Amino acid sequence: MSDPAESRMFPTMPEADTRSRALKALTGWWEDMGIEAELAPPAKPKRLAPAAAPERPPRDPLQTPQKPAIATPQAAQAAGFGTPDGDPEEARKAVARASTLDELKAAIEAFDGCALKRTARKTVFARGNPEAAIMIVGEAPGRDEDEQGKPFVGKAGQLLDRMIRASGLDPETDVYISNVLNWRPSGNRTPSTEETAICLPLIERHIALANPKILVFAGGVSAQALLRATTGIMKLRGRWSEYRVKDADGEAGEHIPAMPIFHPAFLLRRPQEKARAWRDWLEVVKKVEGV
Ligand code: URA
């Protein structure tokens, strides 16, 4: 890595280094991100004997197999898992008449067609500068976002902000940030395809009204939903795509260049991927300088 900002922000993982140096680098990064890491993990035997299979009680052939705890859509909903009780067309109509971002925010807050809203604390709309050239669209709010009512304010958001700042941009003035879903899926699970489909017209209207020069899709859920792609993020990331802006009737119009990148929460779990995410982000920064 030649870029000093890059090496500061995304320290290179040692290649053939000792185990202790690798561990130190990893835990150092975690600490840097505010994640508590145990520096001295309990000593393990050098070679672990293959783990013995846990003993299971003999199966009673007369006993019927246990049913999963959540057997019906109603039970799933009661357990906070949400059900596809909404209709994407209703969602589109609910926001079709919004002609400003303030009107859109009010329309989304009033929309009751997504079951996730019932278990969420807040409707999470956006943060940053709505006039910015770059709009970043993530997946869905997590616990911190649900509490504060703003997207990307937890650990993943802090990493995203650091990446933006390391490139010389300001997260509050140079980007506008939202999510495909405006409500937190309980337990931070991945939203279902139905939930994503219901919320898609809301973010499509959001993009149309914000009208950014460049879109960045953070993570596979966002990239696949907005590009109508089935390819995974591993293949989509780092390549420019064209997002087609939808009008109030849902008709596709102009193109906006869109860059799918790894989700910052994924980078927290897989720090070794930060170098690729950084390269992808620099592509975005390079492009914005030319628009
Ligand atoms: N992950 C997302 O995709 N969005 C957020 O706002 C927070 C975490």
Descriptive account of the structure:
It is built from 13 helices and six strands. The chain has 291 residues and is an alpha/beta fold. The protein has one domain: Uracil-DNA Glycosylase, subunit E, CATH 3.40.470.10. It is globular, with a radius of gyration of 22 Å. 36% of the residues are buried. Bound molecules: uracil. Uracil is lined by residues 138-142, 145, 151-152, 154, 156-157, 179, 219, 265. Uracil binds at residues 138-142, 145, 151-152, 154, 156-157, 179, 219, 265.
Helix content: 40-55%
Ends apart, CA distance between termini: 27 Å
Bound ligand species: uracil
Classify the secondary structure makeup into a structural class. Answer: alpha/beta
The CATH superfamily name is Uracil-DNA glycosylase-like domain
What's the overall average pLDDT, rounded? 81
Low-confidence stretches: 1-8, 10-84
User: Count of DSSP helices?
Assistant: 13
Radius of gyration: 22 Å
Total number of distinct structural domains: 1
- CATH 2nd-level architecture: 3-Layer(aba) Sandwich
Strand composition percent: 5-15%
Please write the CATH class name: Alpha Beta
Annotation, overall tally of beta strands = 6
Order of helices and strands: HHHHHHEEHHEHEHHEEHH
Q: How many strands, which pairing sense, and closed or not: the largest β-sheet? A: 6 strands, mixed
Give the overall silhouette: globular
CATH structural fold name: Uracil-DNA Glycosylase, subunit E
Give the SSE layout.
Blueprint: H1 4-9, H2 19-32, H3 73-78, H4 88-96, H5 101-110, H6 116-119, E1 127-128, E2 134-138, H7 143-148, H8 155-166, E3 175-179, H9 193-210, E4 214-218, H10 220-227, H11 233-236, E5 241-246, E6 252-261, H12 264-269, H13 274-289
Parallel strand pairs: 2-3, 2-4, 4-6
Antiparallel strand pairs: 1-3, 5-6
Bound molecules: uracil.
